[in-house]
């Protein structure tokens, strides 16, 4: 596996998270409402709301992770350290999604910190 493969795998995880959020919304909200402009806000279930917050966080994480990986690739600075950091990032994000959806705060925070630290390491390696 390469850093770019792990980036693609994370993209798939974000897509899955989006799909889960949409499916959860479909269970709670009418199809008519979902196809409307949604000018009047409506609530969804707790788990769907958590998945939405996890999705928002995942998109932010992607906005930080992807440039770091691409910088390393463009500079031809990938090595075992960058591969390990990408693997840690992906594993942390895989753990993050279900524990956030299930409302497990301590593990969620540790997973977030691991992913954040891995991303910071990638930027340091790109310098």
Write structural notes for this entry.
The chain is mainly α and 127 residues long. It is 81% helix and 0% strand. Helix 1 (3-28) runs antiparallel to helix 3. It starts with a helix and ends with a helix.
Q: How can the largest sheet be summarized?
A: none
- State the separation between the terminal residues, measured CA to CA: 23 Å
Fraction in beta strands: under 5%
Give the quaternary arrangement of the chains: single chain
Unreliable runs: none
Structural class: mainly alpha
Order of helices and strands: HHHHH
Tally of DSSP β-strands? 0
Helix content: over 70%
Rg on CA atoms, Å: 17 Å
Mean pLDDT: 94
Shape: elongated
Distinct helical segment count: 5
List the helices and strands and how they pair.
Blueprint: H1 3-28, H2 31-34, H3 46-74, H4 80-101, H5 105-126
Helix pairs in contact: 1-3, 1-4, 3-4, 3-5, 4-5
Produce a short descriptive summary.
This protein has 127 residues and is mainly α. The chain has helices spanning 3-28, 31-34, 46-74, 80-101, 105-126.
List the keywords.
127 residues, mainly alpha, 0% strand
